[in-house]
Design brief:
heterodimer, A: 330 residues, ABC transporter involved in vitamin B12 uptake, BtuC, 2 strands, B: 299 residues, mainly alpha, globular
């Protein structure tokens, strides 16, 4: 485990290990000093970070272009809601089953999409994702249609915001660790190789479609976990969770944070949510500010957000950067 | 299921005809918007989410122009002027922003055009407020088509699609500028080497595309509530029409718009609540069968 943790932050970066532990400790004790609303926001930050990181499994590490990731988040949330409300399953089993439903949906979508390249991959995910949205939006008998589902039967012990927070903290930390381990396993390395040079990978016997499909399913699974955390916190779901613009905003978070770094997407998610809250207090037009800032970043950082973030926060190794260049130019 | 039950669900012929024309009217607006997008995506090679915003702007500006002129002539002036205003705006936007991202990675283009969607959504909110707007129908009344009443205004929508297709075909194959567009798609460097300013070609194409988005917005204005979300609603359908039809292929876009229209108008008879689902179902199915589009893509 210690070697694992060592590679988690790089053996030379013991300071980083301390930092992560310090952040975890701080996150553990901080609710005592914060208002209810702040704890609520921290919970949102936590599961959105997981969602952004899960998108990055297929986007940054898998080199795919999933334009509609929040479908898996929404499906996870709806699955949890429906299982809790309509099935005799124990709540715990419902929570465990919901991400599996997301993974199943990801398996179907992924199987259709992985053979497509670049933009066509993105378009297919967009088409099927919107298809799922449209079904959820109109299937009143089953999903509640555009009303969504309210008053989801989340167990009473999880009703307090601090309970939702601690559940999210534990689950998100565990999931991030698992994702990190996966991405640094032989499978993860091969996946990045597939991203960087699919032809060579194929010629040395790596099944590129299978690697990408597994990455896509994993990414769907962890998005589903984030969806379950959303249900625990909000106890209601609505079809807007699955609308494509949610995915676009998620992509902004990932790109802002940097998609070739492990913690980048989580960082981007945190920044955007904090921005939303603080700007939202000042002006109702906070998206105008966000949009303008994004435009300026793209215009005045010609190498793109990714390059900038890599230079500034720099967690990318030479290999990762090479991959970034290839992907960005391809 | 008993087959005769299924048969009994099939409505009589006149209902089918009526549904067909209603669905087709909507499809033709989608085509006008998608035609603009396919030219932009084909020549400039960017995925432009802002296109839906220009469509929405076309509708909002039409509302204001029609109000300003007032009366029954208001809408016709709006149809004339609003797309031009949208085109002028797109000229500024292309010069200031768009041309800087043509060579950027695709994700950056998506990000920039989506950022502009957010910006314009809020700008429209500031200028026009959050309440929905509506325009009165310029040609009230309806005509009888094979025993089915069809709003007379829909005839204009039905004509707009083929007219746009013909106009674009004429532009692309018969005019100097159109030929330059196609040449730029094939080999931009050679066009530059021949002493032609390909940047100007790009600008023209972008303006043309946004003009068509504005036309689409102006055309839909009298038939629906003009709301902030309408750009986000249409852009995915338009992008799918473009991709399924073959990127940059106007005829492909027309064909897919037809298919969407037919699918929606007949699908609505069997599963009325799921009419929203059909375009995506059709797009996903067609993409599965022909991943790079039904007709030849210029990419």
């Amino acid at each position: 485990m210690s070697t694992l943790l060592g590679s988690f932050i790089g053996t030379k970066k013991n300071i980083l290990l301390l930092l992560i532990l310090a952040v975890l400790l701080a996150l553990f004790f901080i609710p005592a000093f914060l208002s209810k609303y702040s704890v609520y926001l921290l919970t949102v930050v936590l599961f959105t970070s997981l969602l952004a990181t899960s998108l990055n499994i297929s986007l940054g590490y898998g080199g795919m272009l999933p334009l509609h990731q929040t479908v898996f988040f929404g499906v996870g949330a709806y699955a949890a809601a429906l299982l809790l409300n309509k099935s005799p399953l124990l709540p715990l089993l419902s929570f465990l089953a919901a991400p599996l439903v997301s993974a199943g949906v990801a398996l179907i979508i992924g199987a259709i999409c992985v053979r497509l390249r670049g933009l066509y991959f993105g378009m297919m995910t967009l088409a099927i994702g919107q298809l799922v949205w449209a079904i959820v939006y109109r299937w009143y008998e089953f999903t509640g249609g555009d009303d969504g589902i309210h008053g989801i039967a989340v167990p009473d012990v999880l009703h307090s915001i601090s309970a939702a927070y601690y559940i999210s903290l534990i689950v998100v930390s565990a999931c991030l660790l698992i994702i990190y381990i996966i991405l640094n396993s032989p499978f993860g390395i091969a996946l990045q190789a597939v991203r960087d040079n699919p032809q060579r990978c194929e010629s040395i016997g790596i099944n590129i479609h299978r690697h990408q499909l597994i990455a896509f399913v994993l990414s769907g699974f962890f998005s589903g976990v984030a969806g379950v955390l959303f249900v625990i916190l909000e106890r209601s779901v609505s079809p807007s969770l699955l609308f494509w613009s949610e995915s676009a905003e998620l992509l902004i978070m990932v790109l802002l944070g940097g998609m070739f770094t492990f913690m980048g997407p989580a960082f981007g998610a945190t920044v955007i949510i904090v921005l939303e809250v603080f700007l939202g207090v000042i002006t109702e037009y906070w998206l105008l500010v966000l949009g303008t800032v994004l435009v300026l970043i793209i215009l005045f950082l010609p190498q793109g957000v990714i390059g900038f973030v890599q230079e500034k926060i720099s967690a990318g190794t030479a290999v990762e950067r090479k991959g970034a260049d290839r992907f960005a130019s391809g | 299921m008993d087959f005769s039950v299924l048969l009994s669900q099939i409505p009589d012929f006149s209902t089918l005809t009526g549904q067909f024309f209603v669905g087709m009217s909507r499809a033709m607006i989608l085509f006008v918007v998608a035609a603009g997008l396919t030219v932009v995506m084909g020549v400039l090679r960017i995925v432009n989410f802002t296109h839906g915003t220009f469509y929405m702007l076309g509708a909002f500006i039409s509302f204001s122009v029609a109000q300003w002129f007032g009366g029954s002539s208001g809408f016709w002036m709006a149809l004339l002027i609003a797309p031009l205003i949208v085109a002028a705006l797109s000229f500024v936007l292309e010069g200031a922003l768009m041309r800087r991202i043509y060579s950027q990675p695709r994700l950056m283009q998506l990000l920039l055009t989506y950022a502009l969607v957010l910006v314009f959504n809020d700008l429209i909110k500031i200028v026009w407020g959050v309440e929905y707007k509506s325009l009165s129908n310029p040609i009230p009344g309806s005509i009888s088509l094979g025993g089915v009443a069809l709003p007379t205004y829909n005839l204009i929508l039905l004509a707009a699609g083929p007219l746009t297709a013909l106009g674009l075909w004429f532009f692309l194959s018969r005019t100097m500028m159109g030929k330059l567009c196609r040449a730029t798609v094939t080999d931009r460097e050679m066009v530059d080497a021949l002493g032609i300013n390909s940047k100007r070609v790009f600008t023209s194409v972008f303006i043309l595309g946004c003009y068509l988005a504005g036309v689409g917005g102006a055309l839909i204005a009298p038939t629906t509530n003009i709301v902030i979300g309408m750009g986000m609603g249409i852009i995915i359908n338009a992008i799918l029409v473009v991709v399924v039809g073959g990127l940059g292929n106007v005829w492909g876009a027309l064909l897919v718009s037809f298919i969407f229209g037919i699918g929606e108008s007949f699908g609505v008879l069997f599963a009325p609540r799921f009419s929203l689902v059909f375009p995506f179902l059709i797009a996903a199915t067609l993409l599965m069968i022909r991943p790079s589009g039904l007709m030849k893509s210029v990419w």
